[in-house]
């Protein structure tokens, strides 16, 4: 994967409005291959069924939390190196530490800007940094 258009992203978010906002932001950045999941359980099935270059995941979700999904991903050798960005409103130090201990690639606190999202996605995918406007 070496271009925006070929990157396969999995966006995991239970809130429809937030899922749509992030999907639109990613689309505006040039990403066209975005798969959506409403919870960690659905995301885990998708990860096992197809290949992704990056997972962007909410923390608090029904059925399986983002932290639980991260743990499953990191325990499976085939996905252990899959870039994983946690997007959450949880800013307590214990949440951040738990995500880092779990092997998260990056952590984005809600609310966030489009520029921050773009910067973190580029970094996680190993793409050149986004130029400052």
UniProtKB/TrEMBL annotation:
Entry-linked InterPro entries: CheY-like_superfamily, Sig_transdc_resp-reg_receiver, ST_Response_Regulator
Annotated Gene3D superfamilies: 3.40.50.2300
Keywords noted in UniProt: Phosphoprotein
Signal peptide residues on this chain, from the entry's feature table: none
Pfam family, one: Response_reg
Name of the molecule in the record: CheY-like chemotaxis protein
SMART domains for the chain: REC
SUPFAM superfamilies, sorted: CheY-like
Source organism: Rhodoferax saidenbachensis
Residues recorded with modification 4-aspartylphosphate: 58
Domain (Response regulatory): residue spans on this chain: 8-125
Domain of life: Bacteria
């Amino acid at each position: 994967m070496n271009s925006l258009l070929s990157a396969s992203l999995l966006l995991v978010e239970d809130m429809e409005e937030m899922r749509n906002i992030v999907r639109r932001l990613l689309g505006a950045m040039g990403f066209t291959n975005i798969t959506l999941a409403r919870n960690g359980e659905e995301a885990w099935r998708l990860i096992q069924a197809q290949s992704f270059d990056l997972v962007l995941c909410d923390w608090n979700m029904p059925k399986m939390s983002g932290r639980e999904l991260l743990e499953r991903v990191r325990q499976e050798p085939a996905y252990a190196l899959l870039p994983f960005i946690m997007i959450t409103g949880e800013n307590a130090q214990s949440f951040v530490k738990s995500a880092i201990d779990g092997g998260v690639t990056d952590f984005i606190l809600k609310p966030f800007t489009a520029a921050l999202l773009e910067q973190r996605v580029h970094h996680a995918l190993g793409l050149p940094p986004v130029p400052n406007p």
